[in-house]
Amino acid sequence: MSDAPVLRLEGIEKVYNRNLPSEVQVLRGTSLDVAPGEVVALVAPSGAGKSTLLHIAGLLDTADTGRVWLGGEDMTDLGDRRRTRARRGDIGFVYQFHHLLPEFTAAENIVLPQLANGTDPGAAERRAQSLLASVGVGHRAQHRPSAMSGGEQQRVAVCRALANSPKLLLADEPTGNLDPETSETVFAALLTLVRETGLAALIATHNLELAGRMDRAVRLRDGTLVPV
Description:
- By secondary structure, this protein is α/β, with parallel strands linked by helices.
- It has seven helices and ten strands.
- Keywords: ATP-binding, Cell inner membrane, Cell membrane, Lipoprotein, Membrane, Nucleotide-binding, Transport.
């Protein structure tokens, strides 16, 4: 494992409703490094700011102060076009709800982001089939989301997040909407794919048992990160 971080957050601060009576400082000088091949658990209760932190790390939101580095490149002050390109090719996202496109099949949901990134259609289809097979839902490749269980849909969402071979995976409570047995299946599939590909991963969860199976865990408390 290289010591050079895939993700580096330096002194991230974020305030909502600044200078209003409802002002809330969500992040207070938050810093974090995630190395290649490292899986880090982000532990925090609802409302603590973990989604805000993930959105800033994933270039979906901007910090008031602080810097975001991805793969050694300072992304903080880049324009929208470059940030969009990084989100499309270098970052994979998994959310609590799968957000699959209902009118497309499982395979098509994984092919589409690859086509948007310039991948050859044949290669995109082969990768989709390979990813689906690796998480045990290859037989569902031609099914639409409505024909799949919640756990199957979430495994497809994991495959979609990894479709473009990103450097970084960000997951926000990826098993939070599932029953315990299905949660275990989805988390095991997610962890296996991350380990096999060697990418960096930051996974938000309130489940301490799942957090304990990652390489390390950090807790978001009062806007800063502390070891668990």
